[in-house]
Design goal:
Helix Hairpins; single chain; alpha/beta; Rossmann fold; 5-stranded mixed sheet; about 15% strand
């Protein structure tokens, strides 16, 4: 508060000062950049007041600066404010201004967050004085050279790399008559598209291909989409984008490989392994593969391009079982309620026939009046097997007639459901992760760093249950070829990246197997962006280049080239055959009847033999009793 009051008093005391030309150029240039806040480092109090007054005329806020206000803050604190971009004015004609620039260079503040105007004298050797500064490709620095005739000549300075020579280009001039006149057109990115052939280092992620050193021949194979395009597809696709960026900005890339995209690790000064860890440790300049921002710790150590370069799609893929291939095939046409009703109807008809035969006044001697016999008659009538005998009783005929009608209706519906299930494509009732988890399928996942991290860190209860119950104790992590082989041969669901399994399926599956495939997704497609070093000067250039490739269709073309298409079902021409499993219930009923009948037969034989023995024993006893009676009588 005291500082603001002091500034206000000084402004009142110096309101009669004539505004100099250097203060006018500062206000007009910062206004052309549409800045809302600037920091001023002047060599005297009077210069600071003049600059403060002129800048405020353009509704630009002066947030800090100068060496006379006794601000109790470090230089770093003075330069950090919550603005997207901030202007900085430095007068290089005094030692204070030189100290400010040295501290700014050491703090790497010549970046895209600041717009610099540096005032120098006519005698200043720009190349000699500024060669040691840490300028970069994103440096927005204008050096205003004070001429003797009320004119400032403006020069744009930057470096391709902080260790490379300083590049100085004329940017325009300023005088009282014409005001600010800039000679260059376009943005910084358009003006600095030539990186002068500088070589950057980059890391790509290699999981499927066996590559150790990226020689010229290996790079040709790496970029050839006709050679196993499903292996490390999106790493190769991203490097294809880099070939366009290298031509666009005139730089080269020295490539190396890593088996991991970069995931948090518990120990060490570097928080991540793999590609992200190398960027974090500043071992490489760029990431030559794409990564996701969903892993939050990555955002603390690297920055990602704005435009996604790949959509990572993963899903469970499996062969959906056909309806008639299950042991319940003969039961499926009717619900459990209908089957209970049919059973009750059969028993009811048997009971009614038994009652009619017992209560009817006209009965024949050879007529079967048992309940089991009448139930067999009811089964024959209800299931269209015919009647063994014809009855002359009107009540019995009416019951049998109605039973036959009911049997025709039931059998017609049953047969139509069976035929329909044979002719139509099998219904796919496994559609959700929960249904897949509750099914008889064995689960497995691809040996892929992102997929492994997804299952091991996910908080979704279904994913956790899949990992704990099936994946952790089952097949575990598999190579794509191994997983797809299990999908083809067994009841197995394989979670994998789609493009790689699509190509394997296309090469190994028959059309019938392809038509039976089903997919279940656990998460939405993941957007992958290119990672760069944190606060890298290449960020805006790469964003510009990728957006240009997107607008011209290059990116869509590369995605179609490297992303394998989903195998298309050409229509199942194979006539479905009924498996043994499908009619298992019929065989079970038949075998259970045979076993039951044989068991009863054995029981009857044993009982019959026991009766014979009992009778023989009784006869022997009777003979002995008779014999004793005769002896006693004599």
């Amino acid at each position: 508060m005291k500082s603001k009051f002091k500034i206000f008093i000084i402004l009142l005391q110096t309101s009669f000062f004539i505004v100099s030309i250097d203060s006018e150029i500062v206000g007009e240039y910062f206004n052309s950049k549409r800045l809302v806040a600037v920091t001023v480092f002047a060599c005297s109090n009077n210069d600071y007041i003049k600059l403060f007054k002129q800048v405020m005329m353009y509704n630009i806020k002066v947030v800090s600066g100068s060496n006379y206000l006794n601000v109790n803050a470090s230089f770093t604190d003075l330069m950090h404010f919550p603005y997207y971009k901030m202007g900085v004015y430095v007068d290089f004609s005094c030692d204070f201004g030189k100290q400010v620039l040295v501290q700014s260079s050491n703090s790497y503040m010549f970046n895209s967050s600041y717009v610099w105007v540096i005032k120098v004298n006519l005698t200043t050797d720009i190349k000699k004085e500024f060669e040691c500064m840490n300028f970069g490709l994103d440096s927005d620095v204008i050096i205003a050279v004070d001429s003797d005739n009320n004119r400032f000549n403006l020069f744009d300075v930057y470096k391709v790399n902080s260790t490379w020579p300083l590049i100085i280009t004329s940017a325009g001039f300023y005088n009282n008559m014409n005001g600010l006149s800039m000679t260059f057109n376009g943005s910084i990115i358009q003006r600095r598209r030539d990186f002068r052939g500088i070589q950057f280092t980059g890391t790509t992620v290699i999981i499927d291909m066996n590559i150790k050193n990226f020689t010229e021949d290996v790079l040709k194979k790496f970029l050839d989409h006709t050679i196993d395009p499903h292996l490390d597809a999106f790493s190769r696709c991203v490097y294809t984008y880099y070939t366009y960026l290298m031509k666009m900005f005139n730089f080269t890339l020295k490539l190396q490989g890593s088996p991991s995209f970069g995931y948090p690790k518990r120990k060490g000064p570097v928080l991540h392994d793999g590609m992200i860890g190398q960027l974090e440790a500043k071992e490489v300049d760029v990431g030559a593969a794409a990564g996701t921002m969903k892993i939050r710790t990555r955002m603390d150590v690297v920055h990602f391009t704005l435009l996604p370069v790949w959509m990572l799609r993963c899903s469970f893929i499996f062969r959906h079982p056909r309806t008639l291939a299950t042991y319940k095939a003969l039961v499926i046409p009717f619900s459990s309620t209908v089957w209970v009703f049919i059973l009750c109807l059969t028993l009811a008809v048997g009971v009614i026939l038994t009652l009619i035969k017992h209560l009817s006044p006209t009965n024949s001697a050879d007529e079967d009046k048992t309940l089991t016999g009448n139930i067999i008659i009811a089964i024959g009538a209800l299931y269209q097997q015919g009647l063994a005998t014809s009855s002359n009783k009107v009540p019995e005929r009416i019951v049998l007639f109605c039973t036959l009608i009911m049997g025709v209706i039931i059998v017609t519906f049953y047969n139509s459901m069976i035929v329909t299930s044979l002719l139509q494509p099998p219904p796919k009732n496994l559609r959700t992760p929960k249904q897949l988890l509750d099914s008889s399928f064995t689960l497995g996942i691809q040996d892929h760093s992102y997929i492994k991290n997804f299952f091991e860190t996910s908080t979704d209860p279904i994913v956790r249950e899949m990992f704990n119950k099936n994946l952790k104790k089952g097949t575990g992590y598999l190579k794509p070829m191994e997983g797809i082989y299990l999908v083809q041969k067994t009841q197995f669901a394989f979670y994998s990246e789609e493009p790689i399994v699509y190509r394997i399926i296309e090469n190994t599956f028959s059309n019938e197997d392809t038509c039976s495939l089903q997919e279940i997704k656990l998460e939405l497609p993941v957007k992958l962006q290119i990672p760069l070093r944190r606060n890298s000067p290449l960020m805006e250039y790469f964003n510009h280049g990728l957006l240009l490739m997107k607008e011209t269709g290059i990116m869509d073309g590369m995605n179609k080239k490297w992303r394998s298409r989903k195998p298309h079902c050409q229509g199942n021409t194979v006539i479905p055959s009924v498996q043994l499993q499908s009619v298992l219930i019929a065989y079970m009923v038949f075998l259970s009847g045979i076993i039951c009948s044989l068991t009863i037969l054995c029981f009857e034989i044993i009982l019959f033999k026991c009766k014979i023995k009992f009778r023989e024993k009784n006869n022997t006893v009777r003979k002995k009793l008779k014999y004793r009676k005769k002896i006693n009588h004599k």
